[in-house]
Design a protein that fits this description.
The complex is a heterodimer of chains A (263) and B (387). Helix content of chain A is 31%, strand content 19%. Chain A is α+β, with helices and mostly antiparallel strands. Chain A has one domain: 3-Layer(aba) Sandwich (Peroxisomal Thiolase, Chain A, domain 1), CATH 3.40.47. In chain A, helix 3 crosses helix 6. In chain A, 59% of the residues are buried. Chain B is α/β, with parallel strands linked by helices. Helix content of chain B is 34%, strand content 21%. In chain B, a hairpin with a 3-residue loop joins strand 15 and strand 16. Chain B starts with a strand and ends with a strand. The chains are: A alpha+beta (263), B alpha/beta (387). At the A-B interface, helix 4, helix 5, helix 6, strand 3 and helix 7 of A face helix 4, helix 6, strand 6, helix 7 and helix 8 of B.
Chain lengths: 263, 387
């Protein structure tokens, strides 16, 4: 079991619910409101360069940072994503082999996995730590553990953000489809003012294989998000919003079994 | 933070497979750059791995890709320290923290080309087992017996450098006792074409820091290191700097400000002074912008005496694997007491005022700084020291 840290901010983006606040209130966007993520964490130039997933991440990070009242110039940001900028990669492959056109250098530079974290650090003028990681369905757990490691070694607060774009249908022809989802939590060392909950991450099979606390059921998630590799972070955010305490799987049963213990 | 104990390391690149092969090639000043095995409509030299790669065991065949087979080669060459680590630490306390830029893109692009041409993917193509970042992690966990936290850092050309820092933090947080760290990447058409589209590729073998340099040569390969809470270390990673330029998605800060901050952070985290560093394994990609910016940053931190070599003239730029491979070269310099010559045609750029030795240098090297910089403005410096 990892050290215990505080959750002091939450952010979310999913289709129809552009924030954690909207999800908590089950207040969907009204017709006529923009249905696409805005990319609030980016400046104008970099917002244009960010992918749809990157913009959703930007909205979730912005909301979480505002709630936690942390400084975007100095707070480390960890971005987790299972497939990253896969649609940019498919676009480049299509350019090369379907359209047989010269490759777009602008698209190439934002096809890297760390495009969103890079554009965010430029927009926020953050010259400190950023990273981008991936671990399939264990990405939420990995992102939280990376954050807990940073807090254990001197950082006061970190942003752990996860997102995956809609699954690429051509490459995942026979696998269940999922839609875009982004979430973010701000972790802070304890004791912390305004903590929404306290979190430890438990390894699979750790502590004799039993959860340390009562199980928390997964969120009542839209069906199109169930297979999104970041759904476990959604479950965590939903549980914190509801004030649940207990043990929660961070992978919806699709990964190695990391759990969040909320107290 | 306590230094990271590196109890074993393995490497694979255009220079060949294994520590001894790399030692020989670097000592002889022989480059591994040559003709590109991928058909392209432009000229470029690459550092292709030409060694036969081991096939995965039968039960892992669905995961078999060039990247996964590279990981198997690197694990085989780390076998002895890994065996000792498995005897000492519980499997769930041994992490697998790797870095890659392309993951399984090489396999996907071949499959996608067939899909475009014929409307169907190859029957054995599996995106989740062959493309995703998690695919090779599964293979490494299975083959190594490590069952601790595992994830892939993917911050372009600093990816594998990040893994050393993560391991250091997870050790400090008492989440793990040991970790397999490092990274790997393969050549692929998309990357080569992408760098060509940026006009960043040299059409000849790259010539870092030379006046007539024309850009990058891409390479492939990887390096793994075993780091442990205690044990008999071959070398230490004493300090690590991780910074961002916050300047541009693909160009370095022209004055190398973020690079300078990473180098200073690595020194500070180890409690060392610039004078304690005996050699710098430079990022040195061979592009006009990078080499000038990095040289300025080195000069501000260290002056002009410390010998700086870019080993990308030997291996090419191995992208997500570069930081780990160059950390292994730093370890070689410390253990073997020599620096490879800075190879490449032409005179050193007169705008570059740091010391670029064009002959092999022998001596005692107690501390080597290894730099890696990336798209996204991401910078990592590793300070490697004699154990």
């Amino acid at each position: 079991m990892s050290a215990r840290v505080a959750i002091t901010g939450l952010g979310l983006y999913l289709d129809g619910f552009p924030s954690a606040a909207a999800w908590r209130e089950r207040a969907p966007q009204r017709e006529g409101e923009p249905q696409k993520p805005k990319g609030l964490a980016y400046d104008r130039v970099n917002r244009r360069r960010a992918s749809q997933m990157g913009r959703a991440l930007g909205d979730a990070v912005h909301e979480a940072m505002q709630r936690a009242d942390v400084d975007p110039v100095t707070t480390p940001v960890i971005v987790g994503s299972s497939i990253g900028e896969a649609s940019a990669m498919i676009g480049l492959l299509d350019q090369m082999w379907r359209e047989q056109e010269p490759m777009s250098p602008a698209v190439f530079t934002v096809s890297v996995h760390n495009a969103a974290s890079g554009l965010m650090s430029i927009s926020m003028k953050n010259k400190g730590f950023t990273t981008s990681i991936a671990a399939d369905y264990d990405t939420p757990a990995a992102t939280l553990l990376e954050g807990i490691g940073l807090l254990a070694t001197g950082q006061l607060a970190v942003v752990c953000a996860c997102a995956d774009e809609a699954s690429p249908k051509s490459l995942l022809e026979h696998a269940p489809h999922w839609d875009l989802l982004a979430g973010a939590v701000v972790l802070r060392r304890v004791p912390a003012k305004n903590a929404l909950a306290h979190l430890s991450v438990a390894a699979p099979g750790g502590e004799a294989g039993r959860p340390a606390a009562d199980p928390i059921p997964p969120a009542d998630i839209p069906a199109a998000l169930d297979h999104n590799p970041q759904a476990g972070l959604f479950d965590l955010i939903d549980a914190v919003l509801r004030g649940d305490r207990g043990s929660l799987r961070l992978d919806r049963g699709k990964g190695r079994g990391y759990r969040a213990e909320l107290s | 933070m306590p230094p990271l104990l590196v109890t074993g390391y393995s490497m694979l690149s255009g220079l060949g497979r294994g520590r001894e092969r790399h030692r020989e090639q670097l000592a002889a000043g022989r480059s591994g750059l040559g003709a590109c095995p991928i058909a392209l409509d432009f000229e470029t030299a690459v550092g292709a791995v030409r060694d036969e790669l081991p096939e995965l065991p039968a039960h892992l065949q669905p995961w078999s890709t060039r990247l996964a087979r590279m990981s198997y080669a690197l694990l085989q060459d780390l076998d002895e320290p890994l065996r000792r680590a498995r005897e000492k630490w519980r499997p769930e306390r041994i992490a697998v923290l790797l870095g890659t830029s392309t993951a399984g893109a090489e396999t996907t692009e071949v499959a996608y080309r067939q899909f475009v041409a014929g409307g169907a993917f190859p029957r054995d193509y599996d995106f989740q087992r062959q493309h995703t970042f998690g695919a090779v992690l599964s293979v490494v966990r299975e083959l190594s017996g490590a069952d601790g936290p595992s994830w892939m850092a993917s911050t372009a050309c600093t990816s594998s450098g990040k893994t050393f820092a993560t391991a250091q933090r997870l050790l400090a947080a008492d989440v793990i006792d040991a970790a397999i760290v490092g990274g790997l990447d393969t050549l692929c058409t998309m990357t080569l074409t992408g760098f060509h589209s940026l006009q960043a590729l040299d059409d000849k073998p790259c010539r870092p820091f030379r006046a007539n340099r024309g850009g990058i040569s891409i390479g492939e390969g990887g390096a793994f290191a075993l780091v442990e809470r205690d044990g008999e270390a071959r070398v230490l990673v004493e300090g690590i700097g991780e910074t961002s330029d916050a300047y541009h998605i693909s160009a370095p800060h022209p004055e190398g400000r973020g690079a300078e901050a990473a180098m200073r952070q690595a020194l500070a985290s180890a409690g060392r002074q610039p004078a304690d560093v005996d050699h710098i394994n430079a990022h040195g990609t061979g592009t006009r912008l990078n080499d000038i910016a990095e040289a300025k940053a080195i000069q501000r931190c260290f002056g002009t005496e410390v010998p700086c070599v870019s080993t990308k003239a030997y291996t090419g730029h191995t992208l997500g694997a570069a930081a780990a491979i160059e950390m292994a070269f730093a370890a070689l310099a410390i253990e073997e007491g020599f620096l490879p010559p800075a190879i490449g045609d032409g005179p050193i750029d007169p705008e570059i005022e740091v010391n670029i030795p064009t002959e092999k240098t022998t001596g005692t090297f107690d501390r080597v700084l290894s730099n890696s910089f990336a798209f996204g403005g991401n910078n990592v410096s590793l300070l490697v020291a004699k154990a």
